[in-house]
């Protein structure tokens, strides 16, 4: 019996196999990837509308955070296969799948930089956020973290350029 993972990874992998710059999307997409696994076996009030810090610290092994076994999302093919097994033998595969989801989420919590201020600030590079006032402070935080690209003496100039960019009229077909 296998856990159906393709739907969980497909969007993420497809998006980041494109040839265009997507650094402005990576933070949001990492958070969504973690949440997509959480939705499979955790109660939504534990993680939906929570900060990245809360997501990172959430104890996914606590039973009170987990869905009842019958509500764990296994995928339709897996659920159909389960129904062919004697009912007294169905519990073990479900528990194993839940353990798998838990292991994946714990791995993501340790390895994905969802608390990275730099990646969160990179969201300001999204063309649709061009006029967002928060962009200036994000650029001020990003610039010093890239000394191989922007010297400390150029940070004020980069900030000025960002302010000029914010007021530009960019044709919609460029976005």
Brief descriptors of the model:
175 residues, mainly alpha, 8 helices, 0% strand
What does the model show?
By secondary structure, the protein is mainly α. It has 2 domains: 6-111, no CATH class; 117-174, no CATH class. Helix content is 51%, strand content 0%. It is built from 8 helices and no strands. The chain has helices at residues 6-15, 23-41, 52-57, 76-82, 91-111, 117-121, 134-142, 155-167. Helix 7 (134-142) runs antiparallel to helix 8. The longest helix has 21 residues, at 91-111. The radius of gyration is 21 Å and the shape is elongated. The chain starts with 5 loop residues before the first helix and ends in an 8-residue tail after the last helix. The mean pLDDT is 92.
- What sort of overall outline do the alpha carbons produce when their principal axes are compared? elongated
Q: In this structure, how is the largest beta sheet organized?
A: none
The count of DSSP E runs of length 2 or more, i.e. the number of strands, is 0
Helical content stands at 40-55%
Number of domains: 2
Mean pLDDT: 92
What is the tally of helical segments? Answer: 8
Q: Unreliable runs, pLDDT <50, ≥5 residues?
A: none
Q: Rg to the nearest angstrom?
A: 21 Å
Instruction: Report the portion of residues in β strands.
Output: under 5%
Protein structure class? mainly alpha
Order of helices and strands: HHHHHHHH
Q: How far is it from the N-terminal to the C-terminal residue, by CA? A: 44 Å
In terms of topology, how is this protein built?
Blueprint: H1 6-15, H2 23-41, H3 52-57, H4 76-82, H5 91-111, H6 117-121, H7 134-142, H8 155-167
């Amino acid at each position: 019996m296998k856990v159906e993972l393709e739907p969980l990874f497909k969007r993420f992998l497809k998006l980041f196999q494109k040839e265009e710059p997507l650094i402005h999307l990576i933070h949001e997409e990492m958070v969504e990837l973690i949440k997509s696994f959480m939705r499979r076996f955790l109660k939504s009030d534990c993680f939906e509308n929570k900060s990245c810090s809360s997501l990172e610290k959430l104890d996914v092994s606590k039973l009170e955070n987990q869905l009842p076994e019958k509500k764990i999302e296994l995928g339709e093919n897996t659920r159909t296969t389960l129904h062919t097994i004697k009912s007294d033998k169905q519990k073990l595969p479900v528990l194993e799948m839940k353990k798998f989801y838990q292991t994946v989420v714990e791995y993501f919590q340790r390895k994905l930089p969802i608390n990275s201020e730099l990646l969160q600030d990179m969201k300001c590079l999204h063309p649709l956020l061009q006029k967002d006032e928060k962009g200036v402070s994000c650029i001020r935080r990003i610039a010093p973290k890239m000394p191989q690209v922007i010297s400390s003496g150029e940070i004020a100039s980069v900030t000025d350029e960002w302010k000029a960019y914010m007021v530009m009229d960019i044709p919609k077909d460029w976005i």
